[in-house]
Amino acid sequence: MSANDTFQICVLPGDGIGVEVTAPSLAVLEAATGRIGGFRLAFDQRQAGALCYRDTGVALPRETLAAAAQADAILLGAMGWPDIRYADGTEISPQIDLRIEFGLYAGVRPVRTLPNMKPVLADERAQTLDFVVIRESTEGLFSSRGKGVVVEDREARDTMVITRAVCERLFDFSFRLARERKGRGGKGIVTCVDKANVFASFAFFRKVFDERARLFPDIRAEHAYIDATALNMVRRPWDLDVLVTENMFGDILSDLGAGLMGGMGFAPSADIGDRQAVFQPCHGTAPDIAGQDKANPTAMFLSAAMMLEWLGAKHQRPEAIMAGGLIRSAVDMAFADGLHPYEIGGRDGTREITRRVLDAIGLAEPVAA
Ligand code: ATP
Q1: How far apart are CA 181 and CA 243, in angstroms?
Q2: What is the pLDDT of residue 116?
Q3: What digits encode the pLDDT tens for the residues 255-275?
Q4: Nearest-CA residue for atom 25 of ligand 1
Q5: Which CATH number does the domain 118-146+158-261 belong to among 3.30.450.20, 2.40.160.10, 3.40.718.10, 3.40.1190.20?
C-alpha cells in the first residue's frame, strides 16, 4: 500500500465475458470503497489473454507480469478463446501461468448460496450452504501441463507432482482458514480430499496433512476420498466446512460447488500465495454468451469482495475488510430483492445486475470488521 492510503490493483480483464464482468466490478469496488472511506484503489489495467496473443504473439506480456508483480493485488476477468491456441494446439491460459509465477498455491473457492434462489437441491438445508473448497493451484496433475507425452500414437502419459513444501503451506493455510471461520461460527473442520487408497502421491498428500493437523489441535482433521466427496457434496453439502485437495480434483469439485450455487456466474475465487494473490471468478470466457449482456457478474463482484478482505487482513486495514463485507451484503440484498440472472433462466443481464448491486451498496448497512 502506498503512502497515500491507496492500494494498487493490477486489472487483467482478459477475453470474452472476462472483459464484460471486469468493468462493472471496478464500478462496484469504487462504490464500496467510496462508501466506507479511509483508503482508495488505483486500477492499472493491462493486457493478457488469447486476444493479446493473437494481436501481439504473447499471451502474458513482460510489462503485464511486471505490473502484476508490483501491484498490491491482481483482479482478473477470464482468459482463453476456443479458436486462438498455441502452435501445439493447447489453450491459452495465462491465469495458470500467474499461479506458477507467483506461487499461488491456495485456490480458495467458497460455496455460499445467495438468498431467494431457485433451489438446486430439494433439501431446505441446501438453501444456506457455506463451505470452502481449497484447490492446490501450482502442482498436482497440472504439473504436467505442457509436458505430457504421447508415444507413437500408442499411449499417453502425464505426471502428478506433490511436494512437501507446497503441501505444508497449503494445509497450514486451510487450518488457519477453518480457525478463522470457527471464530465466526464455522464448524472448525478441515477435510483432506484425496485418493490415498490407490496412489502413492495421494498417500503422501494425506501423510503431510496428518502431520500439519497436529499443529492445529482446535480444528478437527478429517479424510475423505474424492469419489465419496463428490457424492457428499450433493447428498449432504451442509455438513461441509473446509475441503482441501489436489489441483485437478479441486478443479472438478469447484465446478460442482458452482453448480450448487446456481452456476458458474455465482462462483468467486482467490488464488493466494505468501506475497501475492489473484482474484477472479471461477468461470471461463463463456464464448457461447459473450457480447450479449447475458454474463452474470456476481462471481466477479464476490471475487472483488474477497480481494478487499485479503488486502485488509494483510495490511491491517479494517476499512478494506468492511468494504468487502459491504459488497457481499449488497449482493445478498439485490438477490433477496428478486434478481434473476439469465444464467438461471431469468431476464437480468450484466447491466441490470450491476445497477441493482450498485443501488444496494448505497443502501446496505456496513458491518464493522
Ligand atoms: P474454462 O475452461 O476456461 O474454465 P469453460 O469453457 O469450462 O471455461 P465457462 O466459460 O466457464 O467454461 O462456461 C461454462 C458454461 O457456463 C457456459 O455455458 C457459459 O455460458 C456458462 N457461464 C460461465 N460463466 C458465466 C457467467 N458469468 N454468467 C452466465 N453464464 C456463465
Answers
A1: 13
A2: 93
A3: 999 999 999 999 999 999 999
A4: 265
A5: 3.40.718.10
Does the structure show a pLDDT above 80 at 129? yes
pLDDT tens by residue, 194-228: 999 999 999 999 999 999 999 999 999 999 999 99
Q: Per-residue pLDDT tens for 313-355? A: 999 999 999 999 999 999 999 999 999 999 999 999 999 999 9
Residue 224 CB contacts under 8 Å (≥ 6 apart), including other chains = 191, 192, 193, 194, 232, 243
Report helix angle 17-36 to 318-336, nearest 10. Answer: 120
- From atom 3 of ligand 1, which residue's Cα is the shortest distance away? 284
Atom of ligand 1 nearest to the CA of 299: 27
Q: Is 298 in the pocket of ligand 1 (CB under 6 A)?
A: no
Taking residues 172-191, what's their average pLDDT? 97
Q: Is the CB of 343 under 6 A from ligand 1?
A: yes
Tell whether the model's pLDDT for residue 1 goes beyond 80: no
CATH superfamily of 1-102+267-369: Isopropylmalate Dehydrogenase (3.40.718.10)
Q: Whose CA is nearest to atom 5 of ligand 1?
A: 284
Are the C-beta atoms of 305 and 328 separated by less than 8 Å? yes
Residue-level length of the chain = 369
Q: What is the DSSP letter of 106?
A: E
Confidence of residue 2 (pLDDT cuts 50, 70, 90): low
Q: Alpha helices, DSSP H only, in 156-276?
A: 164-183, 200-213, 226-235, 247-261
- 92 Cβ below 6 A of ligand 1: no
Pocket lining: 169 vs ligand 1, CB cutoff 6 Å: no
pTM over 0.85: yes
Ligand 1 mean position, distance from CA 288 (Å): 8
Determine the Cα angle at 110 with ends 163 and 127, to 5°: 145
Nearest-CA residue for ligand 1 atom 20 is 286
